[in-house]
Design brief:
alpha+beta; three-stranded antiparallel sheet; two-stranded antiparallel ribbon
């Protein structure tokens, strides 16, 4: 399977399933906490979150995208 853009709500739901704390409001964009790592989530006004942003988030938490797709 390939990683593809996700709707904002889908991304939020998957990150919550992974046990990340958030979304937390503050600053320009909401964010999730993974330990002490802060991951900014793009503004929900756009319909989809791009693959590059999803890859960046997964890289920060050390999760392969194949595992992420199984959620």
């Amino acid at each position: 399977m390939k990683l593809k853009p996700l709707k904002h709500k889908e991304l939020i739901a998957k990150l919550k399933k992974l046990g990340l704390e958030g979304p937390i409001s503050g600053g320009k964009h909401p964010y999730f906490l993974f330990g002490k790592t802060k991951m900014v989530i793009p503004n929900p006004h756009r319909s989809e979150v791009g693959k590059d942003i999803i890859k960046s988030i997964l890289n920060k938490i050390g999760l392969e995208f194949e595992e992420f797709l199984k959620l």
